[in-house]
């Protein structure tokens, strides 16, 4: 018996947990996949961080295939879409607590998904030492936080 990926289930759970704790959920997306639809002017180093709080994102849907929602950028409406494979993290912006995922190699998986090494991505909790680096996000410097797995 082969299980489906647990990544969308974990994303939904972390999102609910962050919102229930009255924090602001942010999602880190790799914009390198051609199926990702995000405002390109905000992409840095092939990645984008988006606020997915209920007040910032409307019609948020995290299903087994992707993440989609509507948001405004500079007052203009924009529909965001990302396949689940391009989601790199979901975390509370205030504390950095959340979950990060290894970047999936889109070229390594056969199109039919029947490769011998197919397995779901391995999630990792964002360690407390990474919290300080996530807190250092400054709108003035426009530096993006980086998630680092510390073992």
List the helices and strands and how they pair.
Blueprint: H1 7-20, E1 25-30, E2 47-51, E3 58-62, E4 66-73, E5 76-83, E6 87-92, E7 98-101, E8 123-125, H2 128-135
Give me the secondary-structure category.
Answer: alpha+beta
Unreliable parts: 107-142
Shape designation:
globular
How large a portion of the residues is in β-strands, by DSSP E?
Answer: 25-35%
Helix content: 10-25%
Count helical runs.
2
Largest sheet: 5 strands, antiparallel
Q: Indicate the CATH class.
A: Mainly Beta
Q: What gyration radius follows from the Cα positions, in whole Å?
A: 15 Å
Using the 3D structure, state the CATH architecture.
Answer: Roll
Q: Estimate nothing, just give the exact number of structural domains.
A: 1
Give the overall average pLDDT: 79
* Series of H and E elements: HEEEEEEEEH
Biggest sheet: strand arrangement: 2-1-6-7-8
What would the keywords be for this entry?
2 helices; SH3 type barrels; alpha+beta; five-stranded antiparallel beta sheet; globular; three-stranded antiparallel beta sheet; 151 residues; single chain
